[in-house]
């Protein structure tokens, strides 16, 4: 059995570099966790949440799963949202997908992969909901790109409909939910204009974000 010594060596080098830059960093970090943001993203190893937005450990609360899906039967995800909203008092929740997402591609191609097929069915539901615009796109790459965006927009809606977010808004909390997508090819985040706060009408934001994503996809070559 391998002990993976190179990962421990990497860890020591990382800890030493952090301590050299800020000798009090780990002592301060161990005393409290007070992030302003909750990041709900994909488990893809190419999408490191903290690094993408330039935040240090302790500044971003993170939940990741295959294809950044939020469903109301996933107690793991719901527990993260509840803890972030009610205990950590985050001000913003970001649902962040990424172009070239393997889960989205598998859902689009409907390739049998095993147990995960049940999870990807949620993305296939999104695809069927928008089959008119999806079917009108000739390029597989464009359809994949659009489904990555539509999946994020759908999950933003699901986050907004959780009891935790609804209760926070009813209590007057200035909590906002955002839908973003990350480009693996250039490292840049893109705002899908799916931002929802307590003063916004969710259906209107959803419809507008979908229209913008569809128009963008149709305009691509």
Description:
The structure is a single chain. By secondary structure, the protein is α/β, with parallel strands linked by helices. Helix content is 52%, strand content 13%. The protein contains ten helices and five strands. It has helices at 5-21, 25-31, 49-52, 75-87, 102-109, 116-129, 131-135, 140-160, 163-170, 202-219, and strands at residues 37-42, 60-65, 92-98, 176-182, 189-191. The chain has a five-stranded mixed β-sheet with strand order 2-1-3-4-5. A hairpin with a 6-residue loop joins β4 (176-182) and β5 (189-191). α5 crosses α6 and α8 (140-160) packs antiparallel against α10 (202-219). It is globular and about 55 Å long. The relative contact order is 0.13. The mean pLDDT is 95.
